[in-house]
Design goal:
The complex is a heterodimer of chains A (about 425) and B (about 750). With about 425 residues, chain A is an alpha/beta fold. Chain A is built from 8 helices and 24 strands. Chain A folds into 3 domains: about 15-105 and about 180-195 and about 365-425, FAD/NAD(P)-binding domain (3-Layer(bba) Sandwich), CATH 3.50.50; about 120-170, no CATH class; about 200-360, FAD/NAD(P)-binding domain (3-Layer(bba) Sandwich). Chain A is globular. By secondary structure, chain B is α/β, with parallel strands linked by helices. The two termini of chain B are about 30 Å apart. The chains are: A alpha/beta (about 425), B alpha/beta (about 750). At the A-B interface, α1, α2, α7 and α8 of A face α6, α10, α13 and α17 of B.
Chain lengths: ~425, ~750
Amino acid sequence: MNNGNTASSNGNSLLVIGGGVAGLTSAIEAAEAGCNVILIEKSPFLGGRAIGFNLYFPKLCPPACGFEINFRRIRNNPRITVLTQAELEELTGSTGNYEATVKVSPRFVTEACTLCGACAATCPALRPDEFNFGLSKTRAAYLPHKMAFPEEYVIDRNACIKDCTACVDACRYGAINLEQQIERKKFQVAAVVVATGWAPYDATKITNLGFGQFPNVVTNVLLERMASSNGPTAGKILRPSDGKMPATVAFVQCAGSRDENHLPYCSSVCCSASLKHSTYIHTLDPEAQVTIFYIDTRTPGLLQDFYAKVATNDQLKMIKGKVGRVEEDPQTHDLLVTAEEVITGKKLTQRFSLVVLAAGIVPQTNGLPLALTQDEFGFLANETPGIYATGCAKRPEDVSATVRDATGAALKALQCAVRSAHHG
Amino acid sequence: MDRKLGVYICSGCSIGESIDVNRLVDVAQKEHKAPVCRTHPFLCGEEGLAAIRNDLAQGAIDSLVIAGCSPRTKTNAFSFDSQTVMDRVNLREHVAWSHEPGNEDTQMLAEDCLRMGIVKVRKMEPLEPVSDAISKTILVVGGGVAGITAALEAADADYDVVLVERQEQLGGSLAAVKKHFPTHPPYTGLQETGLPEKIAKVTRHPRIKVYTATRIVKTEGQPGMFDVTLQNGGQPFVHRAGAVVMATGWKPYDASKLAHLGYGSSPDVVTNDQFEAMIGGGPVVRPSDGKPARSVLFIQCAGSRDKDHLPYCSSVCCMATLKQADVTHQTSPATKVYIVYRDIITTGQYERYFAKVQNHPATFLMKGDVVAVRTQSGEHLHVDVKNTLLDEDITIPADIVVLATGLVPNAADNDAIRDLRDAHAKVQRNESETQRAEAEKTVERLRSHEGTEILNLTYRQGPDLPILRDGFPSSNFVCFPYETLRTGIYAAGAVRAPMDSAGAEEDALGAAMKAIQSVEMASSGQAVHPRAGDLSYPSFLLQRCTQCKRCTVECPFGSIDEDAKGTPKFNSYRCRRCGVCMGACPERIISFKNYSVDMIAGMIKAIEVPEEEEEKLRVLLFMCENDAYPALDVAGMNHVAYDASVRVIPLRCLGSMNIVWIADALSRGIDGVMLMGCKYGEDYQCHFAKGSEIAHRRLENVKETLQRLQLESERVEVSQISIDQYKKVPEIINAFMERMRELGPNPYKGF
């Protein structure tokens, strides 16, 4: 990893927007093929959404395992420049010859940070931890998570107490600079990879499913954080209303997806994700009753093996039916889930102690200073030579498919770099 | 070689408050005679780094030990030129942050860590990368849509390409498709396949050489220098290539195995491939009598998602069926189309097309399982469906039944072919009656693999890519889908995993990228993933080799061949630098310049083992540096305390563990040895695929050694650790120490 530019053997530099699975992959793969890469990420750490997951399907292996290797590939590679809290502000020029203006917001912590943690230990201010979807709090001086990369604390100035300098006084290494200002950096790049990723669909919009109204209706992404040992409940899946382990759990598939009123497309990953979530629950409590309400179970390709394996558990029930309504028993905060079988119109209502909405994937493609074509759902279509969308900015897809796609996007970008080197 | 060693000890981040740094200086200077030893309260700061750089510039030192934070942090600060030998000693996460400050045991731990680091660096040598003339030509095997795409995309990045296709024509399976289902916005209309244009482009491209009707006779060599012998009728000829994309595609599942779905019982039961040829012209007619079909019934998952046939979902059949329904309705609007399915799998934006076809008034979707397709002469077919949503079994009449058969990868089963060849050889050698009988049985069992080779690699470990599961030579890693067990050879498209043609194009693009990367890395002597950029490689002291073949057998990547006598022939560009060969070798003749059996043995020797009467135990902990070691770092960051009697030695992979180290440790009086590696077995997490499993197997032999020495087998323990188990690692350490205390000290202490 470096902070400036070095000579490139395979053409000119590339800009990669987004430091999640897709962007990391494009950046590393291109750099290992000889390109110089500037990787910019909006948040203070790399890893995107996936680094907050507990385990990946179908192997049920921890994301940190692959990220550790990828971060090492970055550390060891002088061709990669990582800028966090950085966003593309302007892109001018044309294929092979762009000028990118990147706005870097202050971290207020410099590279001198040693990770000693003295700043957070003395910081008096608290802020909601977005890594845990606000289910927990951090200090205003914080490390996003224990394996965060870059390995530096960050200060959320919006959360600071006025005129407080406790962290500055505590830092023995002079690594805190509360006077840091926004910086603008310009880069000459041959091509741009857009890997801006996704956000979970705002489940409060699906008013009939009760999220935001009843405490024990949660979303799949919240469940990931609860199940993670570095999450807000230290790996326990608990009912928000009373902190108890749920005895019966319902998964509501296509919560927003495949629904003309919300997301008309299929989010691709939620079926496998809910099957995975059922294994989380059964690891914690083998007796828990889990029911998945689905329209179709979509585990394409080799993921079918995973589905077959998980489905052998007698404590897992699969019911084909679209959930029309979730209501709460105000006494117990249990939930009554009513599903309707599409063809017969038969209705069925069951009681659960926790309901998990399999909320879909929404592309994060708005607000970019790039003229890119979006499809009707907001996913980016690759129609501009020199600018290549990849990952969930392009289509809803799982981690493996994203890596595959992002590796290919790196080649499209590399081609521009090679051509530009010839003509430049 | 005598090193001018500099030892730099950081006392920051509470290291100085936890241990007596001056006593560490004594260890460096008095015990180990390091010419330079400095301490600094902020070693990674400008002043600390300047001191190190200055010592290097003055020539006072040529190698250094940095004792401070974990080697996983501050890598930018502590990076020096590649000829400077350096190691980092983890005094922060593994000592100061996880053990009681000011405690004697904490101090002893820190001192031992430093001793190990010093010995390690003294035994390390600067790296000289391999350098040979590297071919950057990409060989693409298979001229279907994936192969053509890989060829074009690599050529467009200025790499020469050799494209080899077995058939007379390019195009593969996609050539039989007239119109394709939509893969682009707005995802509602049929589209052209684009194949003829691509074929024209690939044929004309100045950087691409296309060979059709051509087979690979053999592939010799290694990444950067594969010599590929091709044959298309006449004399064989050789091309040199640097990397390979294997895009050999798929074939339809053999429908004759689907008699239970009526295949073979009537000409009106056809496969989706056959149906493709029947549609798109005029109205759809019955094959049996040529009359217009009033109804067509598709049976989805005909063979797929069925443990008796294909356990996987073939991924393309739902969209293919929807397209065939769509095309049918375009020419025969009144024809009823039934689709009997278990799940309609149209992910992402494909859902749009599903909704469109589903909304056609003559499309009927029916969830259920087909139990029989009955034929009555002159009449239509009857399809019996159970497990429907209507709570009753139903029978649907149909003029044509289309079986949506799945796809089967065109791959060769490397391990089966290797076993078959080995068995053939055994039969020929005629070693003993029982051995021959056994080998003959193996030959019989594997006979169907005869002649199925594709790449025909001349590797000791077999001619093709090893299969992951269900016939696909795919990757076992979620994060690294292009990983294969043969360096520089990447599978792409439907041979790698079930996928449609749009998926295959994308897959080929990525595989072409990996192939390009592989030749670029090879050209500077660097390893590819997961030790990307590593310049070290093993060397073999062959004078002492006993031809035991363990290294050739155990290398997960087939890097080592052997000559007729069984002497290993190492191929450095195939090597991934994991060190499994080094761990395998009973003669200890395999070493890296910066990683060797002798180096780790020296580190073990450097540990001070207290006398028995001191009642202090010592335990060695070998940790996989990729997963277990970072987990222990996080335990340190969380300030979780664990027993200070353990001495950690990180390994490139647990598979590089040589059992001589365990014998060394126990015979020195070390009380126990723990090993922590990655999960192994079906869903292995080991980054070198087999390393962790091999280590476990080697330990079986260690247990016998222990029994011979009359030591309790509990003194050696191996656990599978994943990187997120930072809470469990200290618990395992403490529990092990508890058991060691119960067992009492190693009786070999003091010998």
